């Protein structure tokens, strides 16, 4: 990255629309400060009609790379010169960098999801069967991570069932699709249950799931992190299940990008969690850059 390093350090960004609610600037600036690094990480509000121009201008810009967030992740995938394997599977890019004037794209959401569980519920990798609620952009990353970790049966359940089917078909035989109404019944045979819908977010209704059939070893996790403890996680905790919040996914997905742009692999600590939580944001958060 040396060729992109200005005297005042490398410059990275998060590009989204809207972008004011992004917690990524607080997160990356905390790491820059912790490591005493010169450099910057700034929010770039890029409206959809301007995104192609923004990407095309990157090689000649001051930036060495950055994050791409909603609604640009798919278009970014189409525009990069090269995408790594995860980004190709998900047809979405959330982390980009420049190499010899070419834009390279990756997707670190699946990594972030897995790293959060590795930290908080290590035995998740022993699981065989998972239930994924929701079939939006984040759901694909979660399914990828589950199959990569060795899960042999992944159910994708969604309010709009055709969307679940479309997603499941992309991942082959191990992945099945269904409606949200099937969640209670299927929870009885699951090792891991993941909410990737926006239900449970501040201002949104909770997903009312009856967990009475669940195995005692079921791990319940949510990619929503505002509130940190969603209704689903609270209920899981009340019946003695392992419940893992979604903030760690946001923090961990940022690690590979920071390392690439600034040359230091940063750590996810409790102090960082507090900084990012305190950074607030004008909109409720799901795991987004
Ligand atoms: P993301 O990229 O963050 O996953 P998204 O593509 O808008 O965002 O997907 C949001 C997910 O939350 C979808 O699975 C959506 O279900 P639909 O595909 O049926 O729209 C789900 N979702 C949002 N609000 C919901 C609600 N009130 N009840 C059930 N599912 C909901």
What structural keywords apply?
Rossmann fold, alpha/beta, globular, binds 2'-monophosphoadenosine-5'-diphosphate, 12 strands, 19% strand, 2 domains, 289 residues, six-stranded parallel sheet, 12 helices, six-stranded mixed sheet
Notes on the structure:
The chain has 289 residues and is α/β, with parallel strands linked by helices. It has 2 domains: 133 residues, Rossmann fold (3-Layer(aba) Sandwich); 136 residues, Rossmann fold (3-Layer(aba) Sandwich). The strands form 2 sheets. The protein has a 6-stranded mixed β-sheet, with helices on both faces. A 6-stranded parallel β-sheet has the order 9-8-7-10-11-12, with helices on both faces. The chain starts with 10 loop residues before the first strand and ends in an 11-residue tail after the last helix. The model has no long low-confidence stretch (mean pLDDT 94). Bound molecules: 2'-monophosphoadenosine-5'-diphosphate. The site of 2'-monophosphoadenosine-5'-diphosphate (ATR) has 16 residues, from helix 6.
């Amino acid at each position: 990255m040396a060729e992109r390093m200005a005297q005042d350090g490398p410059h990275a960004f998060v590009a989204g629309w809207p972008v004011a609610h992004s917690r990524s600037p607080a997160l990356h600036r905390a790491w820059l400060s912790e490591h005493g690094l010169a450099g910057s990480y700034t929010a770039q509000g890029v409206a959809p009609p301007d995104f192609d121009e923004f990407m095309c201008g990157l090689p000649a810009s001051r930036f060495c790379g950055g994050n791409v967030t909603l609604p640009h992740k798919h278009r970014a995938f189409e525009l990069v010169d090269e995408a790594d394997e995860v980004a190709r599977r998900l047809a979405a890019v959330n982390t980009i960098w420049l190499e010899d004037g070419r834009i390279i794209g990756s997707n670190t959401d699946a990594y972030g999801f897995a790293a959060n569980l590795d930290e908080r519920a290590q035995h998740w990798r022993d699981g065989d069967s998972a239930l994924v609620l929701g079939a939006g952009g984040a759901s694909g990353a979660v399914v990828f991570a589950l199959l990569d970790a060795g899960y042999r049966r992944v159910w994708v359940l969604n309010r709009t069932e055709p969307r679940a089917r479309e997603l499941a078909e992309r991942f082959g035989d191990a992945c099945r699709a269904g409606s949200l109404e099937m969640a209670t019944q299927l929870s009885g045979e699951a090792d891991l249950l993941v909410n990737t819908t926006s239900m449970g977010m501040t201002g949104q209704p909770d997903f009312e799931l009856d967990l009475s059939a669940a195995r005692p070893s079921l791990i319940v996790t949510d990619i929503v992190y505002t509130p940190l403890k969603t209704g689903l996680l609270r209920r899981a905790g009340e019946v003695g299940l392992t419940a893992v919040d979604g903030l760690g996914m946001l923090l961990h997905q940022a690690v590979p990008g920071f390392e690439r742009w600034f040359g230091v692999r940063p750590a996810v600590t409790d102090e960082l969690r507090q900084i990012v939580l305190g950074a607030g944001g004008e909109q409720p958060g799901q795991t987004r850059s």
